[in-house]
């Protein structure tokens, strides 16, 4: 599965934490929105820097701080982590940082 390019499991009633996906170096799209995933956001910075361009974790139960690698990503990437339980202190002052 390391050559998988798209992993799209939207609204599949998944629960638990997001597993380590760092071996999936060809992954371009990761869509895990509208599930019941919990815990912190895994460190996917290496994937974002190599191949991953679309990351959707919308409407889950993720908590803790929004990782700095997400907040500092530029507009080449589409990342949506809205509607989770992140700490308010880690949220950006504008929503444009996630677009």
Q: Which whole number gives the mean pLDDT? A: 89
* Strand adjacency order, main sheet: 1-3-5-7
CATH class: Alpha Beta
The CATH topology is given as: Leucine-rich repeat, LRR (right-handed beta-alpha superhelix)
Helical percentage:
10-25%
**In whole angstroms, how far apart are the ends?**
29 Å
How many β strands by DSSP?
A: 8
SS content category:
alpha/beta
What is the number of domains?
Answer: 1
Q: Which stretches of 5+ consecutive residues score pLDDT under 50?
A: none
What Rg, in angstroms, do the CA atoms define? 13 Å
Major beta sheet, specifics?
Answer: 4 strands, parallel
What general form does the structure show?
Answer: globular
CATH superfamily, please? Ribonuclease Inhibitor
User: Tally the helices: what do you get?
Assistant: 2
The fraction of residues assigned to DSSP E strands is 15-25%
User: CATH architecture, please?
Assistant: Alpha-Beta Horseshoe
Structure explained in plain terms:
By secondary structure, the chain is an alpha/beta fold. The strands form two sheets. A four-stranded parallel β-sheet has the order 1-3-5-7, with no helix packed on it. The model has no long low-confidence stretch (mean pLDDT 89). It has helices at residues 45-50, 68-71, and strands at 6-8, 15-16, 29-31, 36-39, 54-56, 61-64, 78-80, 85-86. The chain has one domain: Alpha-Beta Horseshoe (Leucine-rich repeat, LRR (right-handed beta-alpha superhelix)), CATH 3.80.10.10.
């Amino acid at each position: 599965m390391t050559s998988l390019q798209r992993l799209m499991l939207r609204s599949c009633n998944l629960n638990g934490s997001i597993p380590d996906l760092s071996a999936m170096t060809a992954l371009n799209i990761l869509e895990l929105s509208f599930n019941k995933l919990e815990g912190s956001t895994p460190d996917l910075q290496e994937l974002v820097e190599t191949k991953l361009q679309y990351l959707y974790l919308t409407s889950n139960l993720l908590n803790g701080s929004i990782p700095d690698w997400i907040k500092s990503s530029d507009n080449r990437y589409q990342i949506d982590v809205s509607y989770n339980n992140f700490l308010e202190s880690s949220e950006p002052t504008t929503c444009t940082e996630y677009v």
